[in-house]
Automatic annotation (TrEMBL):
Belongs to the IQD family. It comes from Camelina sativa. It holds the Pfam family IQ. InterPro entries: IQ_motif_EF-hand-BS. Keywords: Calmodulin-binding. PROSITE patterns: IQ (PS50096). This is Protein IQ-DOMAIN 31-like.
Length: 106
């Protein structure tokens, strides 16, 4: 559980670090103001799309990690349940023996 929290923190920090809007635009010397505005909008859209792609990829990796954890925890829980049932069965057998002794001693 600690590892998944730490991994989620790392992924979240990376996404937050990338999500700040630092747009670097290389402008040609002979461009009209309207073209520059369109280039700015295009650059923002491209960067937003790419950041979305990175976020989806990180989320998919995180989902697969959670599924892997669920499988591992399921194995542990089944083992724990099997041990508990075995102990309860042993206690029931012991209780039968004690009751049988009580009945025979009277």
């Amino acid at each position: 559980m600690g590892n998944s929290k730490r991994l989620f923190g790392v992924v979240r920090r990376k996404l937050l670090r990338r999500s700040h809007s630092r747009i670097t635009i290389i402008r040609s010397s002979s461009s009209a103001p309207e073209t520059t505005r369109q280039e700015d909008i295009a650059a923002v859209k491209i960067q937003a799309f790419f950041r979305g792609h990175l976020a989806r990829r990180a989320f998919r990796a995180l989902k697969s990690l959670v599924k892997l954890q669920a499988v591992a925890r399921g194995v542990l829980v089944r083992r724990q349940a099997r041990i508990a049932l075995h102990c309860m069965h042993a206690l029931a057998r012991l209780q039968v023996r004690v009751r049988a002794r009580q009945l025979l001693s009277h």
